Amino acid sequence: MELYDQKLQSLQIDYQEIDIKTSFGRTRVIKTGNTSGKKVVLFHGINAGAPTTLEVVKPLLDTFQFYAIDTIGQTTKSAPNRLNSKNQDYAIWASEVLEGLNIENAHCIGISYGAYILQKLIQLDQSKINSCVFVVPSGIVSGDPWISTKKLTLPLIKWKLTKKEDDLKQFLSGFAPIEDAFTYELLHQIMVGTHLDISIPKLLKAKNVKDFKKPVFVIAASDDVYFPGEKVIQRSKVLFPNFQDALLLKNSKHMPSKEFHSTIQNKIEEWLG
Description:
alpha/beta
């Protein structure tokens, strides 16, 4: 939580903290940006939190009004109640949050696990969504089992046995830019201080979104060990009836480094503008 506050303050932005009551527990939302701009809802990656997500889109605050939602049951300012990813809990929760914010027909951005939550919301309540941007999304394709074992599973097992920092760095470097000091410290604290949810989201089926006709855009990473970028884009074209466009971040891991932020910002502004 100290790292959460540190990142939020470092952004040097005007913001409002809103707590929404849901049937699953209290949910924190960071509201910021242009009050006259189009409403954009952010669903962050697993355990990432609203401040880290807002950092990526900070230059867009002059154009859009953002609602960065802290996912419940993760390392955020929302309640620690973990939901069942196999049923409709996340969809109901997300819908209740948007109702509490009086948001209808908003642009939605789902990042990694947040994309899975957005996919759940699509299947439950399309009325709140104007368009979707999926960023390094889960729920679309699976990674190569051999590559995942080599780059993630074996290094993770080794670190759990040794507890050495070098072994942890080897594991984290498989998907994140650990040369960034804040990113490394955040991931380090998550690894040593939380009970991780390691369940893998089920892949989305075309029949479940065949009636979703709102525009869909995709940003994927070429070197994503979890969700390989080219496969993500190809299957997204098949899944979504109104697939519009995609951006492949070349030489990017699952968690894009800061050098890709401007590219991501430009595409989001182009698509939502």
